[in-house]
Amino acid sequence: MGFAVRVLLQFVRRHSTLEKIRNIGIIAHIDAGKTTTTERMLYYAGKTNRIGNVDHGDTITDFLPQERSRGITIQSAAISFDWRNRGKINLIDTPGHADFSFEVIRALKVLDGCVTIFDAVAGVEAQTEKVWKMSQKIPKICFINKMDREGAGFSRTVKEIIMKLNTRVALVNIPYFSLDPQTKEQTFEGVIDVINKKLIKWNMDDPDSVNVVDIDPIKDSTLYNQLFKARESLIETLSEFDDNLVEIFLEDANGDYLELSSSVINKTLRNLTLNNDIAPILCGASFKNIGVQPLLDAVVDYLPSPIETRLPDINKKDYVMKFDHSKGLMINNNGSMSVSLAFKVITDPIRGLMVFVRVYSGTLKNGYNVFNTTTKRPFKIGKLVRMNADVPEEINHLNTGEIGVLTGSSINGNVSTGDTIISHSIKKDGLKSFKKNEELTLKINPIDVPEPVFTVTVEPKSLGNKDSMEKALKRLVIEDPSLRVTVDEETGQTLLSGMGELHLEIAGDKLVNTLGAQVELGKVTVSYKEIINETTSVEDYSDEIGYKFSISLEPLDSSVNDISNKSNNETWYPLGSDNNYLIMEKSHKYDLEREWLLQLTYDSIVNSIISSSIVAFQKGGKISNFPLHSCAVRVNGNWEVPLDVEKPNEILVITRNMITKSLNKLATSQYSMLQPIMSLNVDVKPSDMGVVVRDLTSDHDAVILSIDDRDSTEKSEDNLFFNKIAEKQYVPDDVTLNLMKTSNVNESSKHVKAEAPLRKMISYNKKLRSLTQGRGDFQMYFEKMERVTPDHLKEIVDDL
Ligand SMILES: Nc1nc2c(ncn2[C@@H]2O[C@H](COP(=O)(O)OP(=O)(O)OP(=O)(O)O)[C@@H](O)[C@H]2O)c(=O)[nH]1
Fold first, then answer.
1. The ligand 1 atom nearest the CA atom of 285
2. What atom of ligand 1 comes closest to residue 39's alpha carbon?
3. What are the pLDDT digits (tens) for 25-63?
4. CATH of 675-799, one of 3.40.50.720, 3.30.70.240, 3.20.20.30, 3.30.1330.90
């Protein structure tokens, strides 16, 4: 074979492989059926030959002992599989419980598309609304699952999707029920494929049997009618966005909704999904093995490949990024630079540390020297693997757009979640060709870590266990950065903070049972914070060595969302995640002209002030030593550092003392305590509503914001557009739902939205269960930090 032919073949192979890759996530509210659906996907893709069941604790993706015993997903699991030679799918099954939201956040960072799962009985639930918002820029497919359950409402859920999630939709398939003429019972058995005009039926006793049949316009007139109306509605919706489709419809299909070819519909629907204009909807019952194969087809048909996805968010604003059909993403026109993001770290009992990475550009190769631009340290890749279902497959390289895992001892201590890894795609030691201040400082902007709101004390069982406790805690935080470990300077106690009670309970379980730490955990308490009420006077410092600083502290009223467009005369740097900032006023002395005279770079001086500010703020305020929140350290531009200083140690000490001194000068009355306020979403049966609402307002200091029927969606001005869209959207009758209503079995639930202080919500789960005989459900999210009123302050301080 000639050289030119070989090059051409390589190009074609690479191009088609890239186009086939789908990096997708499964997202939804707890219990919607994410893990069950993933398990079926693996089975139908031929990756497993038995179907695991979450209720038996033997699924592939829920492999942690805590996941298997509790039947819930705690950490997201990434697996790869091929779908009928059409797509190479890298899938991340994410947890649905709000306490593990960080797992969803970090998965979304590296995903190109999502499958959102809905429980057909529960409809659009609170956590689904949250993750939908979090994944706003990511193309999504909807799968209405659990269609086999009593009270399943496909059409009701479609309307809720439009109105609550404010999205346009396209029905790719609609449910098919078979009617028992004797009992009049409707059984969900399959779907009507609206695009290919077929009826697809599954046999519940045999997961491998699928029957695809034509729909006879005479014999199956009801189904045929539904197919016609669904196709008409689909084509009308697509036509609103695509004039070209209208032309083809009128000219090639003679204006006949059933004649327009499925390939034309699919092409338009793909473009509109990639553009986030429309979310395709499919339905099924994963537990009964119904509807999963069409869902996998839809993943390939409508979700983006790595060359059709959004560009990563990087720190080099001047670097041009573009997609090349054969090379994938090109950053700064550099075809030999490989850029990857570490998005997850786990410790496997057999394989040790495993770091999940997404390769954004170039190729990551086994045995190559790489550079971690976050830690600024090089290391060597020991072993690369791809997770094939739960079996790791050793590979030599990971191409652009792929997701894989780094393992082996060389990664220990060298990579954490959120780190960017740079390497040369072709030369093993090619790092030398990258410039120290250019490519080797390139970072994919970090993953946002949410603020922890609950805290628990962790004590070693005996003094001899202290070292192993610290090691285990370190491991825990490496795997889950939404946990935070701090030491109370006053008491010397080690504190573990997390997103919720369940989060801390699982972390404690892991510490003791997986990491073997001999520790005891205390009572769960709220993570309070303190804020200063007024700006301090300016603290000046100067000495004979040549250091000079002027520093003041100021409270920040609300959360600072965007620091990029602050005044030109100052630069804002975040100090950890408590809405604290360092403000460096513009220095006339330390401009570029002068900077070369300094031994220390401007960046390292700023980094030292950041470190000292974080330490000083962690020591806490005067009310009860709680860490400071929403405070800024302002450094006057008139500072000086001796030109010959090479290490920043003195800057650290001087600035930390200055901040501490400023804080100490304030009286206790000049501090306020902040407490977390949570937003609550409570679902209850109408008969339980009175008692639940009374209890919330009297015992939990809750403010009720709204009470809605499941069936009625809020009709605010903003929603008028989507309400009209929902009205216009064709949906078939919800046959089982209508039956349920006449027999009055289904008591449609009420949805209560409220806000309450977190300190009043500890153990609310148990309380709600006892008030509602286990029928109530609730989710709680951090909303804001709020000043504690003086009358409550005493109550809280006395309770500490
Ligand atoms: N009837 C019925 N039950 C289902 C279906 N799919 C899932 N389930 C059940 O719903 C429960 C939750 O399923 P999971 O797959 O664990 O749900 P999940 O969304 O992964 O849950 P988390 O990961 O914990 O958020 C289990 O008891 C499943 O057996 C379905 O199609 N029909």
1. 31
2. 15
3. 999 998 999 989 999 999 999 888 777 777 776 777 666
4. 3.30.70.240
Q: How far is the CA of 156 from the centre of ligand 1 (A)?
A: 20
CA of 91 to the centre of ligand 1 (A): 18
Res. 560 pLDDT band, cuts 50 70 90? low
What number is the ipTM of this complex? 0.98
Do the bridges between strand 278-283 and strand 168-171 make them parallel or antiparallel, or are there none, so unpaired?
parallel
User: CATH number of the domain at 535-665, please?
Assistant: 3.30.230
Contact 110/137 with Cβ under 8 angstroms? no
CATH 3.40.50.300 domain range(s) in the chain: 23-302
Instruction: Compute, in angstroms, the gap from residue 650 CA to the centroid of ligand 1.
Output: 57
Domain 321-441, what architecture? Beta Barrel (2.40)
* pLDDT over threshold 90, residue 204: no
Q: Kind of pairing, strands 328-331 and 321-324?
A: antiparallel
Residues 491/581, Cβ–Cβ less than 8 Å: no
CA quadruple 353, 358, 361, 363: dihedral sign:
positive
Q: Retrieve residue 741's tokens.
A: 């209503």
The CA 33 to ligand 1 mean position distance, Å, reads 3
CA atoms of 695 and 458, how far apart (whole Å): 32
The residue-averaged pLDDT of 237-249 equals 94
Measure 31 CA to ligand 1 centroid, in angstroms: 5
- Which pLDDT belongs to residue 430? 85
The pLDDT, as a whole number, for residue 746 is 45
Decide if pLDDT at 596 tops 80.
no
Q: How close is the Cα of 34 to the center of ligand 1, in Å?
A: 7
Q: Count how many Cα atoms sit within 13 Å of the Cα of residue 275 in the half-sphere of its side chain.
A: 13
Ligand 1 atom with the shortest distance to the CA of 290: 31
**Superfamily name with CATH number, domain 23-302:** P-loop containing nucleotide triphosphate hydrolases (3.40.50.300)
Which atom of ligand 1 lies closest to the CA of 32? 19
Q: Would you list which residues are annotated within the binding site for GTP?
A: 28-35, 93-97, 145-148
526 pLDDT above the threshold of 60: yes
Q: Nearest residue CA, atom 2 of ligand 1?
A: 146
Query: What are the residue ranges of CATH 2.40.30.10 in the chain?
Result: 321-441
Q: For residue 72, which atom of ligand 1 is closest to its CA?
A: 24
Angle at 748 between CA 743 and CA 752, to 5 degrees: 165
The tokens for 457 are 């004390």
- pLDDT value at residue 593: 52
Residues in contact with 354: Cβ distance below 8 Å, sequence separation at least 6, in sequence order = 345, 346, 347, 348, 385, 405, 406, 407
User: From atom 23 of ligand 1, which residue's Cα is the shortest distance away?
Assistant: 73
Q: Which of 31, 74, 76, 290 to mutate to test the pocket of ligand 1 (most atoms within 8 A of CB)?
A: 31
CA atoms in the 13 A half-sphere facing the CB of 207 = 20
Ranges in the chain annotated CATH 3.30.70.870: 454-526
Predicted confidence at residue 489, as pLDDT, reads 72
Tell the CATH superfamily of the 454-526 domain: Elongation Factor G (Translational Gtpase), domain 3 (3.30.70.870)
Q: What is the pLDDT of residues 67-108, one digit of tens each?
A: 666 666 666 678 889 999 999 999 998 888 888 888 899 899
User: Are 372 and 360 spatial neighbours (Cβ–Cβ below 8 Å)?
Assistant: no
CA 263 to chain centre: 33
Nearest residue CA, atom 14 of ligand 1? Answer: 33
Ligand 1: residues whose CB is within 6 Å?
28, 30-36, 54-55, 72-73, 95-97, 145-146, 148-149, 285-288
Output the residue whose Cα is nearest ligand 1's atom 21.
31
Rounded to the nearest integer, the mean pLDDT of the chain is: 88
